[in-house]
Amino acid sequence: MSSPLIVGSVAYTPNVVTIWEGIRDYFKGTSAEMDFVLFSNYGRQVDALVDGTIDVAWNTNLAWVRTVAQTDGACRALAMRDTDTVFQTIFVGRTGSGIGGLDGLKHRRLALGSRDSAQAAILPVYFLDHAGPGADAVELVRIDSDVGKHGDTGRSELDALRTVLDGHADAAAIGINTWEAIGRDELMPGAFEAFWESPTYSHCNFTALPRVPQERTQPWLDHLLAMDWDNPDHRPILEMEGLRQWVPPQLDGYASLFEAVREQAIPPRW
Amino acid sequence: MVNHRLVLDLVERVGTAARHGTVSVSLGDGDPEQLSATVAAWCTRTGNELVAVQGNVATVRRGRSLDPLAELAPDLLPGTRLWMYTNFDCNLACDYCCARSSPQAARRALGIDRVRQLATEAVDAGVAELILTGGEPFLLPDIDELVAACTAALPTTLLTNGMLFRGRRLDALRRMDRSRLALQISLDSATPDQHDQHRGRGSWERAVAGIRIARDEGFRVRIAATLPYEKTHELGPFHDFLDSLGIATEDQVIRALAHRGAAEDGIELTLESLIPEVTITAEGVYWHPVSADHDDQLVTRDIFPLQEAITEVRRRFTEQRAHATAAAQWFPCA
Ligand code: SF4
User: Same domain for B43 and B138?
Assistant: First the structure.
């Protein structure tokens, strides 16, 4: 039997261990067994993918963009969560603030999450530039509470929202996942309202390099895509990882981030 | 003024917990009822579980709790077996008796009417086996009637010290349904010393005689030994002896002495450490047969309807396990 495929992931919460042990068990006894390695940040993980320590990386969108840059495009995305294909950034302010759209942010303070978070920092600046008054016309309040994890912990976004509650910012840009996690504007009437929702874009994907041939990744990928929401054995993993179905990657959903990274001259690693 | 940070704190704190782990979140300023309702609504929406709100602190579990009943092996599900204390008096006064039985103990008989109704309701409640215990059931003049009411409904086990199989009591034994009844007789050792030390001089010999009679009469006999924990390891000779009496290996049951009733020492049994076994006495429904003499383990005085009593035991077990799991999270090993 061939050796297991080694998948890397970043440990942004203790739950990551449970999730990956569940996924590993799901592959146990198949022709595509796998194991996992956890990293403390995405910079370290992409290094390990490039140097061959791991075969596949569970990458954020920024880690994907970095991998493409470091390999001159010689890498491939294998799959993503259904939720990764329709990710969005939500701009929120205090209820009744009357900001009314991105243009309403002109000369106001916008709290951003960690500078390496695509959804809460890099893309919000891009959206201000392309669909709003331009980032230069907005006072940016940066909250770098979880750099290295590309915003996965959501902590910087929660801190950005707290900054708005404290009156130190007029609005915050957060990921749709955080907006959902706080119950949108429904659980705390009078707290927040969304005034602009971005177009959808792609978030995480499984990334592999040509060094790991398709014969090795394909059986693993086939079994991954067969994970079934209606199967009670598979369901807990899917729920924990925040998806209903694994789907083929939608690469055009990364176009805005590639452009943003270029325009903002985002450095190659954090 | 509502604490708008509450949900942000919930997301952050629960996000750092492992699955099934619990965190506590301060409700902060505002109307506690409204804040608790917000936590409950957030939990419902996000698939997490509000374990408790105490004072100004909410305890939340990440993910839905495990259903402790579903985690149990099917034969451990409370209500699979129904224990009935037929009476509390006994011809012996063993020093470790968990029911504090003795010749002086009040009878507190369950009585044929209640036994019959329990046996009937047990079938509908999904009980698979009835177990009659005491005291010494053979002290009851109508023990054969009680047993008949049970065996007519379900397979039944009758616990006895096996010392009274003479005269009318032997006749009563002979009338019992061998195809539906197993006798469980207490015997603690292969030689008299250990057994007699706790149960009284001469009791070993009479128990062994009783075992032989029951076997000769064609009954399935299970032997239950109650031993101090440190003696539960060297059992070779004891098993050899039981083999020689014709006791099947699976019918040789060894259990550790419990610290309950008259026992001065033994392993500590608490509500938390016992998976419940629904137990009925004349006084009501108890958590477990080893604690049927303890008010702290009385579940309800209402024996009927039996289904409700079983449901209540299961409900308390689920609740108690949920709290125990949450409490355990507070004392992680460093
Ligand atoms: S342990 Fe059994 S035999 Fe001994 S006193 Fe208690 S009920 Fe009677």
Answer: no
Among A68, A197, A60, which residue's Cα sits nearest to residue A116? Answer: A60
Taking domain A88-197, whether its CATH number is 1.20.1050.40 is answered by no
Contacts of B62 in chain A (CB under 8 A): 15
> Quick check: B196 and B209 in contact, CB under 8 A?
no
Partner A contacted by B64 (CB < 8 A): no
Domain that holds residue B50: 5-63
Tell me which chain B residues have a C-beta less than 8 angstroms from the C-beta of A18: 18-19
Do B210 and B301 sit in the same domain of this protein?
yes
The CATH architecture that domain A5-84+202-263 belongs to is: 3-Layer(aba) Sandwich (3.40)
Give pLDDT tens digits along chain A (270 positions): 579 999 999 999 888 998 999 999 999 999 999 999 999 999 999 999 999 999 999 999 999 999 999 999 999 999 999 999 999 999 999 999 999 999 999 999 999 999 999 999 999 999 999 999 999 999 999 998 888 888 888 899 999 999 999 999 999 999 999 999 999 988 888 899 999 999 999 999 999 999 999 999 999 999 999 999 999 889 888 988 889 999 999 999 999 999 999 999 998 776
* Whole-prediction pTM: 0.64
Residue spans per domain, chain A: 5-84+202-263, 88-197
- Residue B38 sits at the chain A interface (C-beta within 8 Å): yes
Chain A touched by B267 (CB under 8 Å): no
ipTM value = 0.86
Other CB atoms closer than 10 Å to residue A120's CB: what's the count? 28
Helices (H), chain B: 5-15, 32-46, 68-71, 112-124, 143-151, 167-174, 192-199, 203-216, 236-244, 306-328
